[in-house]
Amino acid sequence: MDDIFAPLPGEEVVKAVERRSPRRSPLVLAKWWGEGLWEQYGERLHEFDRFPHDAELHLIDVVPLGAMDLSWLGEGAREVRGHDSGAIRLEWSGLDEFIEKLPDPERPGMFDGVKPSIERLRAEGRYIIFGWWGLFFERPWGLRGMQNLLMDYHLNPGEVHRLHDALCETYVAVLHRAARELRPDGFWTSDDLGHQTQSMMRQPQFAQLLKPYYRRVGDACRENGMHFWLHSCGNNTDLLDDLIEAGVDVFHPVQKHTMDERAVASKYGDRLTFLAGFDVQHILQEGSPADVRAEVRYLIETFDRSDGGMCLAAGNGIVAGTPFDNIEAFLDEAVRFGATHRTALQCGTNPVRMYRIHWEPEAGPTP
To answer: What is the pTM of this model?
Structure first.
């Protein structure tokens, strides 16, 4: 356990994703600094540099709207409203123009912002994740507005399919190019498909309107040897079978208080790897360091199977108002108990007992 705080080599992250017995549960997006956190703590956040990033995420703007010269995207075209209700006011009459002006996936310079860092990480043997925010739900709602889009599923399914098909062609072409030029290990994207109690659309709608395009993206990932990582907030339980069938390999975050973590891990853990997201809304903000450590152990014991299948992350950005000591407890326990749990599983012994023997004097009391 001497080197457990060193970043894992890429092959260990691959083992976790592919359920081939990694030596520690990887930390991915665990140091996700959200709104206001840097303003609150500033340079002090560098104290957390001693904790590993076991996979690095590099994002591009795959459909830069500002560069598309859309005739209807002028001053004030985007409504200044809440994230879920804002839109750029794409009318279906403008869909042909939007499709015609989608950026060339082979345009020069698309990867300039991420390529040097990716090349450095590849030379270090690290696991590299590449991608973008927004796939077939978040991006269309940013174009149409969420209320309009959900009505479109019933009133304008043909236009929805045309939009999805055009976006999918762009996405797949960019994935093929990224495989040639960047050679990432994983593809990251997002679609917040759930709300607090259920999915945003019923499963039959997802299967008809979104799943075929997810499958094409999943096929492109498999063809290019990339794992498919999906972030989707809210309750996604009803869609997990379809997401797995479409090719999603890693799901994040299994949002606390919306999904039954134990039931999901039990039913899907042999087919889906979980980037288990720590509750940043309540436990990390409102609990004690001991509460945080206990929750880390709960997540690891819930999702880390004998063969792996788990990474650990923040559930979303860690925002201002989060106690510094709680962030430290989260990261520290994730590494210490993550390594201990893997060793205990492989040795057939009790992970809590092993943890107490190795770490309790340093890490503090274990409830």
So the answer is: 0.94
